[in-house]
# Entry
Amino acid sequence: MWGQFLESVEKINDILNGIVWGWPVIILILGTGILLTVRTKFLQITHFGESLNTTIIPALKSLFKKKDKDTRVKSVSQFEAFSTAISGTVGTGNIVGVVSAILTGGPGAVFWMWISAFFGMVTNYFENVLGLYFRKKDKDGNLSGGAFYYIAYGLKWRNIK
# Structure
């Protein structure tokens, strides 16, 4: 009885995996990236210098600055903010995923990862913009935002507090 139930769950799971992780989702994800890239007039290329000048370059400059030990500033440096943002994006799955793709797909997989990463940049940009746009202040004045907020407030789901 229990074995038959597990077999039927496994069959349903296999069918759903074929749908969810098949061509339709790949087309939707890349299609969204291509659409946003065209609508923003190739934001990844046209604002590349600005993104370097406001993120990586100041972060690298702040690494080599001497800090006064007497000043106790309660703020996050540019490098700390940059590191936190990257740590939330790049994880073990990204590293293992790249290695697995190269092992199974060969060098051609690297090309397609570059293509998907290029169009994924603008998608990630819009996730961050939406997270900032729909952020909320609590009673203490602290800001909270992110995916939960732009899903709840952007789609106007009123049952979420």
In short: The first strand starts at residue 136 and ends at 137.
